[in-house]
Amino acid sequence: MMIEALIAVALVGALVTFVAPNRIAGKLAFVISLVPVAISLWMFAVFDGSGNALLDGTLAFESQMEWIQLGDYAITWFVGIDGISLPLVVLTTILVSLAIMSSWTPIDMRESQFYGLVLFIEANLIGVFVALDFFLWFIFWEAVLIPMYLLIGIWGGPRRKYAAIKFFVYTNVASLVMFGSFIALVFALGDGVSSFALPEITAAMLNGGPESFAGIGSGTLTSLVFVAMFLGFAVKVPVVPFHTWLPDAHVEAPTPASVLLAGVLLKMGTYALLRFNFTMFPDQVSQFVVPIAAIAVISVIYGAMLALAQTDLKRIVAYSSVSSMGYVILGLVAYTQFGIGGATFQMVSHGLISGLMFMAVGVIYNATHTRMVTDMSGMADKMPIAVGVLIAGAFGYMGLPLMSGFAAEYFIFFGAFGSEASTYMPLFTGLAMFGIVIVAGYLLFAMQRTLFGPFRLETDYEIRRAPLHDIAPMFVLLGLIIALGVAPELIFEMITDAVDPIVDLAEFGGDA
Amino acid sequence: MAVLEMPELTALAPPMILALTALVLFTYDSINPRSTNRPVIAGVAAVGSLASLAVAVWFILAGVGTPVAEGGNGVFDLFEGQLIVDQMALFFMIIVGVVTALVSIASYDYLRDHAYQAEYYSLVLLAATGMSTMAASNSLVTIFISLELASLPSFALVAILKSNRGSVEAGLKYFLIGALSSAIFVYGISLVYGATGHMQLDAIADNLGAAEEMNGLLGIGVLMLIGGFAYKTASVPFHFWAPEAYEGAPAPIAAFLSSASKAAGFVIAFRVFTTAFPLDVMQTLGIDWSLVFIVLAIVTMTVGNFAAATQNNVKRMLAYSSVGHAGYALIGLAGLTVDGGELVLGAAMMHLLVYGFMNTGAFLFVALAEYWGVGRTFEDYNGLSKQAPIACVALAVFMFSLAGIPPFGGFWSKYFLFTGALEAASANPWLLAVAAALVINSALSLYYYSRLVKAVWIEDPVLERESLSQPTGLYAAIVVAAVMTVLILPGFGPVADAAIGAAGAIIP
After folding, report:
1. Is residue A511 part of a domain?
2. Cα separation, A68 vs B494, whole angstroms
3. Which of A179, A430, A484, B153 is most buried, taking the most CB atoms under 10 A from its CB?
4. Domain-located, residue A119
């Protein structure tokens, strides 16, 4: 019942915070958010699951009960944790706590509503990573949208209305496409399944797959559903060319919402790709490996080039997420232990690093009220600590050894280079590696211009150092980034344990 | 399930409690005319409707109306089959009870400066009695009488703001179209009687064979009956009164009519077409009414949605949205096939129940806005969340639920309608078009529902407002409706079982 407790604390906390006075809402929400952190760390400590949740693995903290019987299908409350979901749950709880602390400075109106929505998002994000029934999962998945829409729309920047509605429409249409195609798939599976439980559907998919449905043949149907679901998740990830909502949403969102968007919401997309497309459809993956790998490489290179062209610090970080998510897709499509495992590791690592970067940019913005590279220079003199953390985060992004970004990218490249999914995989991997060069280019270039050199910024007030509660969350993140960089096996072992059953599905073995 | 020992007539307790409460209010009013003791009057109305609701819920839990074979108390058959209390009757009595209770509680504040207190509540309760009886009617005669019992007080209620031109105009329009459609309905009844020689629904079904030579007459009669239902449920082609009447009527009355009255219209449609005109027999006579409902469902939901998207007035938007939802509920009849269809019919019943909460709540929010006097258009609602965050959370719940987005009740019922239509598509491919229309319309409807959420939460107010009061009754009703819209999601299992069971019992 620990998972239920985790979600319930966040939900009840959201309600309590929502009606609390504005004055204390921030502190209250932070204290409440420490409870899920404690529970998830305890789960991490006593985790005893093994294998993959969808492939007959042993689940930790499993609980299942009947919810609704609809015709021939049962809908159940079915939650459980395996080695892929646990790191993401821990990432979510920690990042939410830190995001709450980092909003104490910038959020200065309607605080109780703001923090209530953040806790509400936390409950649903955890739900996405633990739900093992398609309906339950979809409800959590969709329920994330509404609070994020409001966070961007109410507390966002000047173009918040446009950004909020764009985010909502893009991701909601994508969800509808995905939902419709998956339901069609389940119906087409016919007598093979009697519930919407994902392990059962996975088993049915691997044992022959769907019959023909509504006049569409079995093979065509499976491929259609695979493509539709890939597109549905690709918007969420996002990959080029479905990425245009992301810079708008990230830039207009208030800092803590950007942290959650980049840190966790994007991982929903890659997590879902791994759970659905890359676990249930191994044959289709090998069929579509070249286009998917091409999309991944294009996202890496094009995302990085877009970042290179920006003059707004937040936009730079936002576009670099497109690039990083490209690596995740590349790792997934490699279909090797290190490829998929590295992709999962990168989800966690990127969550920490991008969270750190957005916080650091936010702290500088709080002091200067500008994010334009061209407006400022020499910030290091005025805010040495914040700038120091920003630089550390940027090096993590570039993949400096002993930081988690290096481990993640190394795993992915290692896994992708040795992949036998397609003979072109080494070529794609080689191309994607150029992304690192561009990342280093734009990050160093931007920092050199804003942080170093003589101080220059027109303000009519003195720029002060950031308060402790702005800096502390960044140090926690930095500590985690270094910890995972020094000892990736902290989570990589449980990840590979859950990834191995997926790799075994591929016809071209996964020796790399 | 415990089997209740009770006299037959007590099965009609839910409508009888409503009628009794109306009479109590009349008595009070004759003893103490022009009383404005609002707590007593509204309290009696609320207690009466809640009692009716409680009895109906208790009955359904105790197995009243459940066939004896399933361990229930059996179906109660009263006055030689003129009235029947089965699961479906109780299910709709619950919907009527819920909406009446919410409206009674909310009206307490809305009518604060109003002169006709007792009259208002007794008319509401009389109309509710009619609707509750419609749920149990099993003969064209009782259907017509209870329909009129529901309609006549409604005309007066729409026009009850006597000094408000809009209200009076709406009342007149509603009355004229109501009179016309009643005439059509009665004519339809007479043609069906002429063709089969019976009024009682089961007897009509038994004598359909005799109508073989007069199937043209019967067909026209059926078509006219459909016209009567279309009026009562605000479906195409008799939907155009709805925006006018809802806009002019006091907002709680608009909530009452668009939720309870619509549900009552659907229950008679469900009962008449499943009991009196079984699809298999009717198809041999060449009268395939399911095709009519397929067309009506698609057209109604599309017309309602597109019209709603172009409105600037919140109440009119909600009125057209209620037309759109009538189209969704019509899938319950469109999806019936010779093989059955309890899933799709049950889904329509669930949708009407969820709709009873979310739509009533949405109209009551409009009532709250009218109480505050903030205006009628989307712009007037801008930034209301700053003064009234709790009511605006409830509004967001209603809007996203109406759009069918998880995690709210509207998602389940729409999804069940969708699967029901897909299931029926194997017997009748036209249902694929219905399912597609449902999905496309739901996706489009998000546009205008989210517009209202955007107005209250994201936009800045055009004019600065003073802080707004928090009327207890209206707030309580809105919050209860919102909480139920959310809680019905985890609690959907029993609701689905009851609805599908009820639908299975009346499908031959």
Report:
1. no
2. 8
3. A484
4. yes
